[in-house]
Design brief:
6 helices, elongated, about 40% strand, about 270 residues
Length: about 270
């Protein structure tokens, strides 16, 4: 198979998986060979033929929560004149609106065949962590819902425990701020800007002083990720080199020397 066809197969595999978790399986079905075989994690997930696979995909679409895929690592494992094997892994995580909290790695293998200038799927293998699936599940809903409930309990407990903090602004007005509303804080000269869920407060104190005030309330809740930025772990969504994504599509820099420490802090 030509190099450009192999690259196309990798991109098609990625697009197919993304659309699958957006419940758009017509795209995948259009590329199935009539004799395609699909093998999944569970014992019953062994399907043969385009019609059977299409039927199962449409039936199971409503059982899947909303999932976003990231960290794609796909390669061509082997190829010959008319076919190629695309294998690799990606990370899937439930969206905020799914009602579940779950994140894990998924492994895939697709065998593509070029037939009369058309790329078709001959074989699909997708595996999830078996130990997380309950009987009859195609996705670990039970553990996802349990984790979400537990997470909300911890957050609510911290909200009650941490309470509020009082800050004076540059007009000498006092603001009583709920600590869980603080998304992040940003240094501004010898003062700091406190970014909240609904508004911002210009605090008349240094970022270091504000960090100490918060540390006295909850030492593990906030972290200096950069010399000019202090973030609330409960508003953090994802970490990459060298950037931390927070709620409301906010991105703050993470300094290189603090990156490993921030990564470990988020994983605790």
């Amino acid at each position: 198979m030509k190099k450009e066809d192999i690259h196309h197969c990798i991109e098609l595999t990625k697009e197919l998986m993304i659309r699958h978790y957006k419940k758009d399986d017509d795209f995948a079905i259009s590329y199935l060979h009539r004799s395609c075989i699909w093998i999944g994690s569970c014992a019953e997930e062994f399907y043969q033929g385009k019609e059977e696979i299409a039927s199962v995909l449409k039936k199971e679409a409503n059982e899947l929560p909303d999932i976003e895929l990231t960290a794609f690592d796909y390669v061509c494992a082997s190829h010959d004149t008319h076919s190629c094997v695309i294998t690799g892994r990606h990370t899937g995580q439930t969206t905020r609106s799914s009602g579940e909290i779950y994140r894990d790695m998924q492994r895939i293998t697709f065998v593509w065949k070029k037939h009369k200038d058309e790329l078709l799927i001959m074989h699909i293998h997708v595996s999830n962590p078996m130990n997380n699936l309950q009987e009859g599940e195609i996705f670990p809903h039970k553990i996802g819902k349990f984790t979400k409930g537990y997470f909300e309990m911890l957050v609510n407990r911290d909200i009650k425990k941490n309470g509020t903090i009082t800050v004076k602004d540059r007009k000498n007005r006092y603001h009583v701020i709920k600590i869980h509303d603080i998304i992040y804080c940003e240094a501004f000269d010898m003062n700091c800007i406190i970014h909240l869920s609904k508004n911002d407060v210009f605090g008349r104190l240094t970022l270091l002083d504000f960090e100490q005030m918060l540390s006295d309330k909850n030492r593990k809740m906030f972290k200096r990720v950069h010399k000019s930025y202090l973030v609330n772990r409960y508003h953090a969504l994802s970490l990459s080199r060298y950037e931390l994504t927070l709620q409301n599509d906010i991105s703050v820099p993470v300094s290189q020397e603090r990156y490993n420490e921030v990564r470990d802090w988020l994983s605790q």
